[in-house]
Each structure stands twice: as C-alpha cells, then as structure tokens.
Amino acid sequence: MSRTILVTGGGTGIGRAVAEHFAAQGDTVVITGRRPGPLNEVAARNKKMRAVSCDHTDPEALQRLLEELPGRIDVLINNAGGNTDFDRASEAEPDLASYAQAFRANLEANLISAALTTKALESRLSAGAAVVQIGSIAADQASGSYGAAKAALANWNLNVAAELGPRGVTANVVSPGYIADTEFFRDRLFDDRRSALIDATATGRAGVPADIVGAVAFLASPAARHITGQVLNVNGGARTTR
Q1: Which CATH number characterizes residue 67's domain?
Q2: Angle, to 10 degrees, between the axis of helix 13-24 and the axis of helix 36-43?
Q3: Does 146 qualify as catalytic in the annotation?
Q4: How many C-beta atoms lie closer than 10 Å to residue 187's C-beta?
Q5: Which stretches make up the Ketoreductase domain (predicted)?
Q6: Alpha-carbon Rg of the chain, whole angstroms?
C-alpha cells in the first residue's frame, strides 16, 4: 500500500536521498525546504514526488503548508536544519547580542523547526505512523549551540513518543556522524578535518547519505512498530573510538 511521506529539507543531501528512496518504493513523497530551486529540480525527476517551499521555523508558513498537504501523513521525517554557524561570518569576540542571535539561530533551525512541524501535523499523522528526527553526533560532543540544539531534539523526541504512542505512532531519532556528499559543511571542511573525522570512526570511512536512508527506512517500516523514543547512531563507531 502506498504511503504519504513528508521530508523536510528534502532538496539536498540526506533529505534528498531519503525522499528518492521512498519515491522509488512507490510512496507519494512531499519534499519541503526554503530554496525552491533544489526542491523543484529533485521533484521534476520523479512523478511520485512534489515540492512545496516552506520555512519550518515560521508558524504562518506551516499553516500555508497544511493547505498543500493531504489529510493523512504516514511518515514525517524532520530533516531540515544544519549548523547555522557556517552561514555567518566568523567573529573573534562577538558581543552578547550577536552571541544570542547565533545561538537562537541553531535552536530555531534544528529544534523549533521540528517541534513546530510535528505539532502542525499531529492530527494528520495516521494510526501507526512514524516520525523520524534527523539528529547528529554533535549532540554528544562539545559542539556549541548546534550540538545543544540536537541534544534538545533527542530529549524532546521522548515527549513526542510518549504523547503519540497511544495512537500507534512511533518517534525516533537517527543520529548521523560525518556524512560525505552533503552541503552540511558548506565550503569549510578542509582536508585535515575530513581526515580526522574519518580516522575517528571504527569503519575507517566517511558515511554517505545511503547509510542514513537505510536507518530511516527501517524505523518507518513495519519491522520497527515497537521501537520508539530511541536514538539510532549511524556514525561508523565514532562515538566509541574518540
């Protein structure tokens, strides 16, 4: 039976790979994000996919998104986010106002966006639906406001699991380590840092979007109906080898 899947941040990287996987399985997939260009490019190549521009930190934008969505969502993947520190010019000693603005930006992008989206779609999640949050290994490391936001995401997900569990809805977090072939680091990942990230793994390689796709697909499958409130780390063993 075909399902309806919503993938936020579905125009590039992990979100795009996840969306393409579900579309290839015959599911109807809606991808969202702030940039229409990448979204439309991906959706144009697949008849099972539709692109809708949306800023998931904006309640009004989410209300407009609801008008574009079907009445039932079977899988919600909160993938939109990223380290917003990479989007601003570095400051040697930012003043307090700048520090607050930068900290809030990561919370908005990675925590508030997921919370607002899940709340907006709560009544549309079908019985037995799956919610999957895309977290990060940064949640367990000293990674500034980005890591704090991802740690909060994992904690907040416990509430989602508890609140939606009676309806048969599961809520889990997939927590990637370093994943190559994405826009995450913008142009700020240099060779020495890349090598260090790979050396920290037990597998001796960078992750790729397909690694995350497999984990998300499992958590959204019938085999995972009794798994909820969990964090699935997909990082090549990096957490245990640092």
Answers
A1: 3.40.50.720
A2: 20
A3: yes
A4: 7
A5: 3-159
A6: 17
> What is the number of other CB atoms lying within 10 angstroms of the CB of residue 211?
21
Q: Cβ neighbours of residue 10 under 8 Å, at least 6 residues apart? A: 16, 18, 19, 29, 30, 31, 32, 33, 39, 42, 51, 79
Overall domain count for the chain: 1
What is the token pair recorded at 139?
């949640």
* pLDDT single digits (tens) 192-210: 777 888 888 999 998 999 9
Residue type, 98: S
Parent domain of 67? 4-241
Alpha-carbon gap, residue 49 to 11, rounded angstroms:
11
CB 145 within 8 A of CB 217: no
User: Which one of the listed residues 22, 146, 156, 178 is annotated catalytic?
Assistant: 146
Tens digit of each residue's pLDDT (9 = 90 or more) over 15-68: 999 999 999 999 999 999 999 999 999 999 999 999 999 999 999 999 999 999
